[in-house]
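Researcher: Here's a chain I'd like modeled. Treat it as a single chain, no partners, no ligands.
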Amino acid sequence: MSNKTRFDLEQEILGCWHITDDIGVMLNAMENPEFDEDERMNFLIGLRTIYNAKFEQLFATFEGLISEGKVK
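Model: Modeled as a single isolated chain. Structure tokens:
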């Protein structure tokens, strides 16, 4: 049984929206001529890894709340 609530779900959804801000930061950083191709790829891989984890956590919370009848 999870201790999560609908509020937790909402916060996780909002946290995933930060991807648009993070993409903006990434785009600005990629314009820096000091970054080589390897650094740019590492940035993208890191961003993908972080958001994959965030979306997995979000989905697990959603599934948990549905199975507990906390959301319909």
